[in-house]
Amino acid sequence: MARIAIVTGGSRGIGEAISLKLKEQGVTVIANYGGNDEKAREFTDRTGIAAIKWDVGDHQACLDSCARIAEEFGPVDIVVNNAGITRDGTLARMSYDDWDDVMRVNLGGCFNMAKATFGGMVERGWGRIVNIGSINGQAGQYGQVNYAAAKSGIHGFTKALAQEGAKKGVTVNAIAPGYIDTDMVAAVPAPVLEKIVAKIPVGRLGQADEIARGVAFLCSEDAGFVTGSTMSINGGQHMY
C-alpha cells in the first residue's frame, strides 16, 4: 500500500518539485497551500496531486486538516515541512508583525504539523519528517533576522524531535537549501543576484529538483539510519 505524504507549500517552487518527486516514487501526495486558489487548481489539473488549503501557522487548522486527510486518504506516513514566507528588512525597519508572521509560519508550522502527525507515526512504527531549513538559517543573512532565526530554529527542532522518534522507526531530518532558481529568488534584484551567484563555488543557482531528490532519499526506506541530520544542498556556498 502506498505511503501517504503531506508536503506543505507543496504546489509551487521547491514544494512542487518535492510533491512530484515523491509521486514519482509511488507515494500518495497531498500538497498543502496557503494562498492562490487558481494556481493550486492549475497544479492539481497538471499533476493529479490533490491540493488542500490551510494556514500551517494555525495550530487547529493543522490538526483538523491532517485528521481529514487521514480519514480520506489513510494515515499520514511522511510530512515535508516546506511552507515558508519572508518579511525581510533590517531590525530597525522590521515590525513585530513581520517577526511574528515569519516565526508563526516557518517555525510554528513545523511544530503544528508534527503535533498533528508524529504520534500516529510513532504508534505505527514508521514515519518520515523532513523540514526545509535554509542556508540563511546556518550562516545568517543581512535583513533577515526573522527568517534566519526561524530557519535556524528548524535545525534545532529537527535534532530534538529526531531523538524522540529514533527508537520508534520515525526519522526526522532537515535540508538546508542554498539559493535555488525559484520565483522567490527571481524576485531578488539582478545586481544582488549576480553577487550571490559569484559566491557559489559551483557557479550557478540550484534547481528545485536537486532539493527534491534529497527529500525523496530522506523519505525512503533507504534512509532508515539517517536521523537528526541536516543535508546542505547549496553548491558549496556554506560549508561547516
Fold topology:
Layout (H helix, E strand, L loop, with lengths): L3 E4 L5 H12 L3 E6 L3 H11 L2 E4 L5 H15 L4 E4 L14 H29 L2 E6 L2 H5 L5 H21 L4 E8 L5 H4 L3 H9 L9 H11 L11 E4 L7
Parallel strand pairs: 1-2, 1-4, 2-3, 4-5, 5-6, 6-7
Helix pairs in contact: 1-9, 3-4, 4-6
Structural class, from secondary structure content? alpha/beta
Strand content: 15-25%
Strand order, main sheet: write it out: 3-2-1-4-5-6-7
Ends distance: 40 Å
The SSE string, one letter per element, is EHEHEHEHEHHEHHHE
Sequence stretches where pLDDT stays below 50 over 5 or more residues: none
Query: What is Rg?
Result: 17 Å
- The total count of helices amounts to 9
* Main pleated-sheet profile: 7 strands, parallel
Number of DSSP strands?
7
- In the CATH scheme, what's the topology name? Rossmann fold
User: How many domains, as an integer?
Assistant: 1
CATH superfamily: NAD(P)-binding Rossmann-like Domain
What is the average per-residue confidence, as pLDDT, rounded to a whole number? 96
The CATH class is Alpha Beta
